[in-house]
């Protein structure tokens, strides 16, 4: 299932193939997902992916941003904790982010504060079908317990959340090519908002 979905995504996005070749990255992703789901993860951490395969963190975040072009693989969410009631809100798109209204208390927090965006984090949630299939296959073929402690140690203190600024930094590569056009559109919305808040417009 994962391979087919990746194949479809790669057909639409040549940059992914150039930078993260499918035949090289599919086995990494597959075994990473199995290990993370085995540890109970629903959100995938590019930091842990980077550590597992000795990749630069920025490269791993870009890869995940590219994968999140296909919501049947990963979905990118924004996470924001309400200033009024501390409820964690998981937000799907930029418009809801920029017109934030707490799902719990209805508090609205939008253009009013300069710090708002720097408190927003990015999360990558694994698709439910892939999660389910992985859980099923782990049940039938449990992972070897060997090295499991190492993986748990590796994860300690390394969060699944990415500061929004970090995402903004990695969407373009050194040749100024965006990892995906969807990501570029998201970025532009965020940057327009930032410019308004900072008084540049
Ligand atoms: Zn609230």
Summarize the structure.
With 201 residues, this protein is an alpha+beta fold. It is built from ten helices and six strands; from the N terminus they run H-H-H-H-H-E-E-H-E-E-E-H-H-E-H-H. The strands form two sheets. The protein has a four-stranded antiparallel β-sheet with strand order 2-1-5-6. Strands 3-4 form a two-stranded antiparallel sheet.
Keywords:
two-stranded antiparallel ribbon; 4-stranded antiparallel sheet; 51% helix; alpha+beta; 201 residues; binds zinc ion
Q: How confident is the prediction overall: mean pLDDT?
A: 89
Biggest sheet, spatial arrangement of strands? 2-1-5-6
Any ligands, ions or cofactors bound here, and which? zinc ion
Strand content: 5-15%
Shape: globular
Class by SSE composition: alpha+beta
Number of self-contained structural domains: 1
Separate helix tally: 10
Specify Rg, calculated over alpha carbons: 18 Å
Mind summarizing the main beta sheet? 4 strands, antiparallel
Write down the secondary-structure element order: HHHHHEEHEEEHHEHH
Distance between the termini: 46 Å
Uncertain spans:
none
Share in helix: 40-55%
Written overview of the protein:
The protein is α+β, with helices and mostly antiparallel strands and 201 residues long. It has one domain. The protein has helices at 2-12, 14-19, 22-38, 46-52, 57-67, 94-98, 128-140, 148-155, 164-170, 181-197, and strands at 74-81, 88-91, 100-101, 108-109, 121-126, 162-163. It has a four-stranded antiparallel sheet. Strands 3-4 form a two-stranded antiparallel sheet. A hairpin with a 6-residue loop joins strand 1 (74-81) and strand 2 (88-91). The longest helix has 17 residues, at 22-38. It starts with a helix and ends with a helix. The model has no long low-confidence stretch (mean pLDDT 89). Zinc ion binds next to loops.
């Amino acid at each position: 299932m994962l391979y087919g979905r990746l194949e479809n995504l790669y057909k639409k996005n040549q940059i992914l193939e150039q930078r993260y070749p499918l035949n090289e990255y599919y086995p990494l992703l597959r075994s990473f997902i199995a290990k993370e789901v085995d540890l109970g993860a629903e959100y995938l951490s590019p930091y842990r992916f980077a550590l597992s395969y000795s990749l630069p963190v920025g490269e791993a975040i870009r890869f995940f941003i590219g994968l999140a072009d296909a919501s049947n693989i990963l979905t990118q969410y924004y996470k924001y904790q309400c200033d009024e009631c501390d409820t964690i809100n998981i937000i799907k798109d930029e418009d809801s982010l920029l017109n934030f209204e707490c799902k719990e208390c209805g508090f609205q927090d939008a253009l009013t504060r300069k710090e708002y965006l720097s408190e927003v984090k990015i999360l990558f949630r694994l698709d439910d079908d892939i999660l389910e299939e992985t859980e099923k296959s782990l049940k039938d073929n449990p992972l070897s317990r060997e090295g499991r402690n190492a993986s748990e140690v590796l994860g300690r203190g390394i969060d699944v959340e990415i500061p929004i600024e970090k995402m903004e930094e990695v969407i373009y590569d050194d040749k100024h090519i965006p990892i995906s056009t969807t990501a570029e559109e998201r970025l532009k919305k965020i940057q327009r908002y930032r410019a308004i808040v900072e008084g540049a417009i």
